Amino acid sequence: MADQLVVGFDLDMTLIDTAPGFRDVLAALGGELGVEFPVEEMTKQLGPPLDMLLEPYLDAEAIPAAGDRFRALYPDHAIVGTSAFHGAHEAIAAVRRHAGRVVVVTGKFPANAQLHLDHLAFDVDHLEGWVWGVGKADALRREGATIYVGDHVHDVEGALAADATSVSVLTGGCTREELEAAGTHVVLDSLEDFPAWLDQHLLDLRLAALDEDLKRRGSVLVAYSGGADSALLLAAAVRALGPDRVAAATGYSHSLPMSERDPAREFAESLGVEVLTPETHEMEREGYRANAGDRCYFCKAELLDVLTPIAAERGLAHVATGTNADDLVAGFRPGIRAAAERDAITPLADAGLTKEQVRVASRRWDLPTWDKPAAACLSSRIAYGVEVTPLRLGRVERAEVAVRAALADLGLANLRVRDLGDRASVEVDAALLPLAPEVEAGLLDAVRVAGFDEVVVDPRGFRSGSMNEAL
């Protein structure tokens, strides 16, 4: 799987507007020293270390003591009145949304920098202070930062020295032309533009990594369910390798709804790849029928045991599944373990592509599956501990077809009819609840006709993987 995202941020004039506080402290220092500092001019130069700013106005031997006094005055004059720039908290939240770490690397005195972070409630993993220019590179490399956001040409120097992507904002004293001349990769007007840029940047990187990975593989048989993940993987494989070195295989069994079969085949055929539909016999595996918490292990084992020799017969180097990066951290996933034991590859997860990114990329590529609701196999509807049988799978499928028909006018997207053994529980999009009494009555009748004697509508609505709650 891709390495964890780590983003570094400068502090002064990047995350926070330190200009007002700097003016106040400088004025207080000047009053104590009897020096009339050109406060406005010096404030416009914010960025370099304090000692450099004081050099033109104080004797060299006086600068260390003046710097110490500035830092001592700072907490009382510059913390409370300093505000975060618009978009600063949202920029950090964007990193968190991608499960990333946030580090602040600044030339500021560390104790005062921490006061700002605490006062403004910035969610930061690590603070590195008193580093400047290329000196920031050591901290960025040590923390594993691949992106550094700053406002000054010297922030650009630090990012480039660390081999990180340099992102510059125009909230400091440097112009776009100065930042570009320094070699920054990106210039944003402010941090308000950062979340959208980060989303795009990571998607581009991860799609490029996916393409490179598939090209190295040489040829693949895609375990293709017709869902958004495996559809994107199939399309990416064709882009990287060409249709002659790619095949799609959909295992046909009682657990695959009939409604899924034709659309899946049509999409795969539209890419020009060979479409295989071998039968799988997971029902013959005792562990699958028993339907304990590890049922998916036996289902995936059966699928891979069928597909692996097919791939070998066709000279395809790998069997690839549509496992994404979210799946790897989603907790209980015995099917992933079964596939790994059989050497199946997971290109989407290896590239770090999340479910959201799969959908965004699919839309970018005009794939019809970009907004397709999740469609787990029918056996996932049967409560753990209740035996999986063709009869139970069949009535679940009939019930879901009937519910979709009953709610066709409501814009239903997500649906599960859960077989709880002695009754059925229907989960629909929470936004549709509560249903009108007459609509709910029609829904319940439709599920009873499908083969369930007792049925209720779950008031919590659709929840992917809700059966795992019992585990």
From TrEMBL:
Presence of the UniProt keyword Signal in the record: no
UniProt GO MF annotations: transferase activity
Secretion signal, residue range per the UniProt entry: none
InterPro entries in the cross-refs: HAD-like_sf, HAD_sf, LarE, Ni-pincer_cofactor_biosynth, PGP-like_dom2, Rossmann-like_a/b/a_fold
Protein name: ATP-dependent sacrificial sulfur transferase LarE
Cross-referenced Pfam families: HAD (PF12710)
Species annotation: Nocardioides hankookensis
The keyword Transmembrane helix belongs to this UniProt entry's keyword annotation: no
The organism's taxonomic lineage, starting at the top: Bacteria, Bacillati, Actinomycetota, Actinomycetes, Propionibacteriales
Keyword terms, alphabetized: Transferase
NCBIfam families from the UniProt entry: ATP-dependent sacrificial sulfur transferase LarE (TIGR00268)
